[in-house]
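[09:14] KT: can someone run the structure on this one? pasting the chain below
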Amino acid sequence: MKILIVEDEKNIADGIKFNLEADGFETETAADGEEALEKLTDPEAAFDAIVLDVMMPKVDGFTVARTLRERSDFTPILMLTALGKPEDVLSGFEAGADDYLPKPFELNIFLARLNGLLRRREWFLKEQEPVKADEIIEVNNRLIDFENLEIRSETDTIQLTLMEAKLLRFLIEKGGAPVSRKTILEEVWDLHEETDTRAIDNFIVRLRKYLEEDPTNPKILLTVRGIGYKFVSED
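[09:31] RB: done, structure tokens below
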């Protein structure tokens, strides 16, 4: 597998590169967001994941992630950030990151999170039950296409990130049963319970925009007070 490392601090980039290659990955590096976008635009490039720093010269990590998603490039992104505020983490998810890791980080945690992200990508593409990856589900006059990571209506097509699709699929599979934020963290994102759960709320807000007629008055993705969320649909 090939990983693009986007990091302006050379010692950090070199350390990540050394350890990933020791684990059998092929790597390339970019020193800033502008160089990263050039590499990712190259038709010869084919990266399985991107390790993306946030604070960089020229073009920051948020802009890189957002630009890729706008181009319909949904390569999994592990965002590295020294910004610890919840709103900064949420900005990363809003931009299209699939996971994040605060700096400074321990190497074993970094490798576990990156490998987890790659495994989730493979599991998502290969899972067959109870919702087949190639099955298209109709919800509120919209078609959810898990194979192509799309939600389609008569007038629009919305591209989902891997993590948006994974969360939506997980809630659908629960068949209307309430799901706690803790369960979502552990079973969807492979994260420990001490992780800030507000990122989940942000994902739900985005999914409501995609599926609900009125996202401020949801009928499909419902909040279960004191617990978490549930998916309800008559389709």
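[09:33] KT: thanks! The chain is about 40% helix and 20% strand.
[09:34] RB: yep, looked fine to me
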